[in-house]
Amino acid sequence: MAICVSNAKPFIHSLPSSSSPFPIHTQKLNSWRKPTLCRSVKESPFPHPNLISRRRSLSLCLTTSFLLSLGGSHERLEANAAILEAEDDEELLQKVKMDKKKRVERQGLISSSGKDTAHLQDLVYKLNRIGEAIDKNDLPAASGVLGQDLKADWVKNVNLALDKFSISPQEKAEVDAFSSSLASLISSVEKKDFEASRVAFVASATAFEKWTTLTGLARELKGI
């Protein structure tokens, strides 16, 4: 049942038109109040079903779009990861090829440099004899193998062979370390300094062993 009071005269209308100081404003006030005077008691306070349906549809569309965007992002991430993995594989393959090429070139150099390899083999024998002499505190025997200075022929031949087979910066660094330690070894033995001779010998042998590992000559030389 609807309660309708649309015929009721508002208080503003009871006043004479001439007595109202604001006739235009009272007319607007009347037109604003009329729609609110008649309202159904049974009118539902809840939103219209069509409005709810539209809201649900909009929510569903937004959710679907969000999920699709996530799926697309995931696919893009997988694609980018695949590209990076392929690039890494390509770089690894190129590195393997370069390493193989260097080994082949090095092996060819070793095979064609029998004289230089022989000088290095002689160095291995000398280091073994020097080490045995120092262990026995027999510095005169060590001096007989080393010589008195770096001008000895065997030292010159060894330096030439080391320079010839050294290609990478690491290999050249080990050659420098060996040459410096060998000079200290000769000097310490001549001074009959047992402790300094031991330290210099270990440094020389260690640097030379690392160098043979880097160059691949450890497989070619005996006694290392």
Automatic annotation (TrEMBL):
Every Maintenance of Photosystem II under High light 2 C-terminal domain range: 119-224
Q: Which InterPro entries match?
A: MPH2, MPH2_C
Among the Pfam families in the record, one is MPH2
Q: Biological process GO terms, please?
A: photosystem II repair
The name this protein carries in UniProt is Maintenance of Photosystem II under High light 2 C-terminal domain-containing protein
